[in-house]
Structures are given as C-alpha cells and as structure tokens.
Model the fold of this input.
Amino acid sequence: MSTTTMREAASKLELPRQRLDRSVSLGAFSVEGATKAGTPGRLVTITVKGFAPRKAIEAADTLSNIVIRNISTYTDTKLATYQKRLDRINRELPIVSA
Done:
C-alpha cells in the first residue's frame, strides 16, 4: 500500500503511520483462486492485526475506503475513454457502411 494511503489513514485514525504500516497486510486473489506473482488480483484483502478489535476494524474500513476511492477514479476515467471510442465508432459506422 502506498505511503500516501498509509499516511492519510493514520491521520484519520490518529495513529503513528509506522505503527499502522507494521500492522497491515495485503492479499490479492480472484474468484478462480489465489493470484500468481506478477498477475493482477481482482479482489484485495486488507488485514489489520495488533490493535484492539474495534480499532482494527476501523483501520481496515478506513484503508478500504481510501483504496476504493482511488480505484474508482481510475475506473471512471477508463470507462469514459471507452465510451468516447464507442461514440466515435457509432458516428463513423454509417459513413463506412455507405
């Protein structure tokens, strides 16, 4: 997880970033099973250990919200790009078909 993400989460949780960093582990997997090194995972697990249960849940929720916010921005941009391509193809299709 990026230092920026950890710093933001630590600030929101009022924890030292280094302590949060040591307590968090990430995993990636797909519906088909565990992912291999170098291949993108479709789902991410965020595990937080070393805190009281309520604080660990709060940390995992905070981190997941930050990750989702960052990923959805990327996805929205990609979808907008594909929509523009589709619109252009639909405009040009009648010209090519004529």
Q: What stands out?
A: Helices lie at 3-13, 17-23, 53-97.
